[in-house]
Amino acid sequence: MKIKDIMTTDVEVLSPDTLLVDCAKKMQEINVGAIPVCDGDKILGMVTDRDIVVHGIAKDMDVKTTAVTEIIQNTPVYCFEDDDISKASDLMKTEQIRRLIVVDQNKKLCGVVSIGDIAAKTQNEQLSGETLQDISQPSHKAA
Q1: What is the mean pLDDT of residues 84-110?
Q2: Sorting pLDDT into bands at 50, 70 and 90, what band is 138?
Q3: Which pLDDT tens digit goes with each residue over 22-49?
Q4: CA–CA separation, 68 and 41 (whole Å)
Q5: Buried-most residue among 51, 67, 110, 139 (CB within 10 A)?
Q6: 3-class secondary structure per residue, 37-103
Q7: Are strands 99-103 and 78-80 parallel, antiparallel or unpaired?
Q8: What is the rounded CA–CA span in Å between residue 136 and residue 74?
Q9: How far apart are CA 132 and CA 14, in angstroms?
Q10: DSSP 8-state class, residue 8
Q11: pLDDT band for position 128 (50/70/90)?
Q12: What is the mean pLDDT of the segment spanning 87-103?
């Protein structure tokens, strides 16, 4: 099964200058925990609710003046829509993340895939269970 078979395609994006408070409000409005950040067609990364707390609030950044680009990863983590689901699962395990940006062959954003998509849409309990277990392992990566 391919990523394009299970990914979410109706994806909202944020501009790089979006303030953390506005990002959090957008997350609440559309009921998600992560939103890609794009500058036009260029994908800059993904901001998560955890990023706002751990990399913003906990570091005393003002949510009303701090832009999302100040807290996102430097390198976006993504997979291709034609990748096999197991490849996305492996990438989630390696990076210890629960959501991946999905791009087409021109590296244009076309969706997002989550561990929840893998669990709910593949019916492969072993794959989703192993992925979640490995993602949830404590890491020594800097928060």
Answers
A1: 92
A2: low
A3: 999 999 999 999 999 999 999 999 999 9
A4: 17
A5: 51
A6: EEECCEEEEEEEHHHHHHHHHHHCCCCCCCEHHHCCCCCCCEEECCCEHHHHHHHHHHHCCCEEEEE
A7: parallel
A8: 22
A9: 27
A10: B
A11: very low
A12: 90
Average confidence (pLDDT) over 70-83: 91
C-beta neighbour count of 90 within 10 angstroms: 16
Give the three-state DSSP class for 35: strand
Q: In angstroms, what CA-CA distances link 9 with 44, 56, 85?
A: 18, 28, 16
Q: E strand or H helix at 108, and its extent?
A: none
How far apart, in whole angstroms, are the C-alpha atoms of residue 141 and residue 143?
6
pLDDT at 143 over 50: no
- Cα distance between residue 7 and residue 72, in whole Å: 22
CA separation for the pair 137, 133 (Å, rounded)? 7
Nearest to 102, CA basis, from 50, 52, 43, 29: 43
Q: Average per-residue pLDDT in the chain?
A: 87
Q: Which of 101, 100, 92, 96 is nearest to 141 (CA)?
A: 96
Nearest to 92, CA basis, from 61, 33, 136, 28: 136
Domains of the chain, first to last: 3-135 (3.10.580.10)
